[in-house]
Amino acid sequence: MLNYFSLKMIDKKNITGIILAGGKSSRMGTDKGFLTLNEKPFIQHSIDALTPLVSEIIIVSDNPDYNVLGYERVTDIIKDAGPVAGICSGLEASKTDYNLVLSCDIPLIKTEVLEKLIVNRDTDADIIQIESNGKTMPLIALYKKQCHIVFNELLKKDERRLRVAVNQCRVKNIPLESKDYNTTMNVNTKEELKQLEHAHNH
Ligand SMILES: Nc1nc2c(ncn2[C@@H]2O[C@H](COP(=O)(O)OP(=O)(O)OP(=O)(O)O)[C@@H](O)[C@H]2O)c(=O)[nH]1
């Protein structure tokens, strides 16, 4: 639960939420942000988890259908170049030093998990990312705006691998307790969608 004291420590004015909702969705075949869980679009689950923590939300996608949600939408600085370009586009558009970056395919994500990134921020790390069951999650992470400079340089050299880009920055991992592992489940295929619905219902 978010409590009064932890909420007081979070200065929402200094944090922007950036949701990546581009890409090809080649494994799923349809835009993942508009899949639903409990009749709510996946992207709305990301928005709802971010809202208590951020002053602004930016959706990074070339798909104008996302405009219906009423948030600022920016397009990718390089089309179809993957999450590095998506993050870069969001960071360039952001007006704040700290930015919570989320993918749009993690509908079990919770504010309480994202809050751990914020309360653990320190001046040395450029990226603070969740570690869930031993796996680091650069798409559930807090980025300093300045990361766009490094990411841009890599894109110019045609380096598009997100893990390579992240490792060029100063990174801190925040391991989750096992009870929270489910909150980071992402969905790439119809089979994974069934597994997620099962995890949600049990
Ligand atoms: N803005 C933007 N977001 C992206 C891009 N590629 C992936 N994403 C987002 O990054 C997250 C993880 O995406 P992946 O599942 O790795 O890739 P995908 O292209 O959506 O799906 P696959 O084609 O099946 O790999 C999702 O939220 C995607 O919407 C991109 O080029 N631009």
Description:
This protein is of the alpha/beta class and 202 residues long. It has a single domain, classed as Spore Coat Polysaccharide Biosynthesis Protein SpsA, Chain A (Alpha-Beta Complex). It has helices at 4-9, 42-50, 83-93, 111-119, 147-156, 162-167, 190-201, and strands spanning 15-20, 36-37, 40-41, 56-60, 72-74, 98-103, 127-132, 135-144, 171-175. Strands 5-4-1-6-8-7-9 form a seven-stranded mixed beta sheet, with helices on both faces. A hairpin with a 2-residue loop joins strand 7 and strand 8. Helix 3 crosses helix 5. The protein starts with a helix and ends with a helix. The model has no long low-confidence stretch (mean pLDDT 93). It binds guanosine-5'-triphosphate. Guanosine-5'-triphosphate is lined by residues 20-27, 32, 60-61, 76, 80-83, 85-86, 103-105, 139, 188. Its EC number is 2.7.7.77.
Number of helices: 7
Q: Structural class of the helix and strand makeup?
A: alpha/beta
Please list the strands of the largest sheet in the order they lie side by side. 5-4-1-6-8-7-9
Number of domains: 1
Count the strands? 9
CATH superfamily: Spore Coat Polysaccharide Biosynthesis Protein SpsA, Chain A
From the N-terminal CA to the C-terminal CA, the straight-line distance is 20 Å
| Bound heterogens, unique | guanosine-5'-triphosphate
CATH architecture: Alpha-Beta Complex
- Portion of residues in helices? 25-40%
Radius of gyration: 16 Å
- Mean pLDDT score: 93
SSE sequence, one letter per element: HEEEHEEHEHEEHHEH
Please name the CATH topology.
Answer: Spore Coat Polysaccharide Biosynthesis Protein SpsA, Chain A
CATH first level: which class? Answer: Alpha Beta
Largest sheet: 7 strands, mixed
Keywords: Cytoplasm, GTP-binding, Magnesium, Metal-binding, Molybdenum cofactor biosynthesis, Nucleotide-binding, Transferase
Cofactor: Mg(2+)
GO molecular function, one term: metal ion binding
Pfam families: NTP_transf_3 (PF12804)
